[in-house]
Amino acid sequence: MKDVMVVIKLMMAEKRDILYSILFGVLAGLTSVGLFAMSGYMISKSALAPPLYIITIMTATLKMFGVAKSISRYAERYFSHRATFTILSNLRVSFYEKLVPLAPGIFQKYRSGDLLARIVGDVESLQNFFLRVFYPPIVLVIVFLSTIFFTTYYSIYVALTLFAGLILTGFIVPALFALRQGKIDSQVREERGALSTDVTELLYGFRDLKIYQKLDGKEKQLGKSADLYVDGQEREGIHAVFNQSVNALVALMISWFVLALGAYLVTEGELAGLFLAMLVMISLTVFENATPMALFPAHLEESRHAAARLFSIVEGKSEEEGSSDQLSKEKAYSMEMDGVSYTFLGEKRLTLENIQLNIVAGSKTAIVGPSGSGKSTVLQLLLNMYLADQGDIRLDGSPIDSLAQESIWERTNVVLQENHFFFGTIRENLMIAKDGLTDQEMETALLNVRLDSFSLEDPVFEKGENLSGGEKQRMAIARAMLKGAHVWLLDEPTSSIDAVTEKQIYDQLFEAAKDDTLILVSHRLTGLETMDQIIVMEKGSVIESGTFDELMNKKGYFYEMKQIEKSVLL
Fold first, then answer.
1. Options 1.20.1050.10, 1.10.8.60, 1.20.1560.10, 3.30.499.10; which CATH number does 2-189+235-311 get?
2. Angstrom distances, CA of residue 385 to CA of 333, 343, 377, 400
3. Would you give the DSSP letter of residue 316?
4. Residue 547 CB: number of other CB atoms within 10 A?
5. Is the Cβ–Cβ distance between 490 and 366 less than 8 Å?
6. Fewest CB within a 10 Å sphere: which of 294, 429, 461, 536?
7. Distance CA 187, CA 208 (A)
8. Which residues lie below 8 Å from residue 313, measured CB to CB, with a gap of 6+?
9. Distance from CA of residue 134 to its chain's centroid?
10. Cα 31 to Cα 36: distance, rounded to the nearest angstrom
11. What is the DSSP letter of 394?
């Protein structure tokens, strides 16, 4: 329930609309009861042929109750829905603020389709929390207790019967269905996540599935997921309707009991017959306010599971960030790793084991090794995208967990193996590097990466689908150059670029970073002669380190890799 408490905390920011919703909900309930009570009394009174002015007064009162009921019900709907939309907005903003710092590593834990189902579907499910769970029981209790207090003036027995009806329809019957409803809702929510995941994978992998002629199998799997979700929704709907029907049946039985009890009291002379119709009409009307309680367990369980699934994504993460001014914006900083080990979530194999690394401020370092040796993971740990399982990471002498992620990213030029490009133009994709960039600066950056044939107005499709692999890498390098930070983390930045263009780009890049700290992850061993140090990794461990000449003279693993590369190129 702690996740629901988070929702309630966000909800209470709209105290005024909540108060108005309850106030007008109570007024709508009371005026509805008053309307039908007056109708029953008027019918009985009219049978006795009272003076005309009595009929006129009762008719006017009846109309007053009708108008008041309509206005109150409209106001209740207006304020409750306005509160709901604002609460959902607050919830989305709050969740987004917690999610953003986790974004780089969030896909380790969640598949993209399931994450989308939680962020969209579960947030939407919480719209029912205020409208169906929070304030209706408050309105119900107030209206019922007020009605019971009123009926005690005429008959304590009828009042006790209505109180018993309140307990049955408001609490006992919904509670009996709550356990079963919780299991069904949980299954439906999981099935929705599975369906969303399958749809996402089908869309992302459609081309490959088509090429390898495996589309039919994936479509059948998607169809099974859809059928399971539809079946779950049907079970959920049937259970909700049955719950509502049982609740309505109990309410109707209470009304029949009130009629029978009232008739008996009239025959015994303990109740004036004039009020019998009024009490029966009250019992029929007041239980209309108990109707929402039939679906209360469904909406409560739906809200509870939605909140749990939603906030489990950011569970255990501190909202507090380190100081954003602990890293200097004006100079390069050093980076150290001391005994760092790391394992990806759900894996048993160590990705990194006991990494020792010392990057001096302003130095140039290359990290080389075969695929899967952990080179990229080192960069991601230095960016605080992942948290090390053990060991210490220090940036400019400060522990990395004391620094805000935003502080690290703001002061780093990053080119990863996969870089995202937005639908728009070349200009729009370059301007995300830094505010206030001029066209001249962007055109110079394109020239430096040999993309001067591009115009700033040229279109970029979603995910850069109209760009080649090499063009994407050069665009990413151009963005890094435009950012102008003093620390460079480059992960295979030119793996898809031809050797001639690669050398030209590196000349420009190293000139721009001549006074900066630079770490280059690369499979290629050419052009490393000028590096201050070279780190050689294999199977998650550092096996050699030193300058190019030192490693070549040592004739170890790096020397062997270099000889193999020469033989392949020759």
1. 1.20.1560.10
2. 18, 13, 9, 11
3. T
4. 15
5. no
6. 461
7. 31
8. 99, 102, 106, 109, 110, 115, 118
9. 22
10. 9
11. E
Predicted confidence (pLDDT) at residue 564 exceeds the cutoff of 50: yes
Distances (CA, A) of 492 to 333, 343, 474, 513, 519: 22, 22, 11, 17, 11
φ/ψ (deg, to 5) at 421: -125, 135
Fold of 335-412+485-569: Rossmann fold (3.40.50)
Tokens coding 87: 């609460």
Q: Are the CB atoms for 421 and 460 separated by under 8 Å?
A: yes
Res 318: pLDDT = 43
Residue 441 near residue 450 (C-beta atoms within 8 A): no
What is the full DSSP assignment across 69-90? HHHHHHHHHHHHHHHHHHHHHH
Residues 6+ apart with CB under 8 A from 187: 232
> Phi first, then psi: what are they for 435, rounded to 5°?
-70, 150
State the DSSP code for 433.
G
Q: Which two tokens stand for residue 113?
A: 């389709």
Tell me how far apart the alpha carbons of residues 429 and 187 are, in angstroms, rounded to a whole number: 42
pLDDT digit string (tens) for 206-247? 878 887 788 888 888 888 988 988 888 888 788 778 888 888
User: Does residue 301 or residue 68 have the better pLDDT?
Assistant: 68
Three-class secondary structure of residue 522 per DSSP: strand
Model-level pTM? Answer: 0.63
Task: Count other Cβ atoms within 10 Å, centred on residue 341.
Answer: 16
DSSP letter, residue 133: I
Give me the DSSP letters along 14-71: GHHHHHHHHHHHHHHHHHHHHHHHHHHHHHHHHTT---HHHHHHHHHHHHHHHHHHHH
Q: pLDDT class for 456, splitting at 50, 70, 90?
A: very high
Q: Please say if the pLDDT value at position 192 is more than 80.
A: no
H or E element in which residue 542 lies: strand 541-546
Dig out the tokens for 25 from the structure: 């909900």
Region(s) of the chain under CATH 1.20.1560.10: 2-189+235-311
Query: ∠ at Cα 537 (531, 542), nearest 5°?
Result: 95
Instruction: Label residues 411-432 b or e (16+ Cβ within 10 Å = b).
Output: bbbbbbeebebeeebbbebbbe
Q: What is the rounded distance in angstroms from the CA atom of residue 444 to the CA atom of residue 73?
A: 64
Every domain range in the chain assigned CATH 3.40.50.300:
335-412+485-569
Q: How many CA atoms lie within 13 A of 478 on its CB side?
A: 29
Given a contact cutoff of 8 angstroms between Cβ atoms, the answer to whether 345 and 386 are in contact is no
> Is 81 within 8 Å of 21 (Cβ atoms)?
no
Neighbours of 192 (CB within 10 A): 21
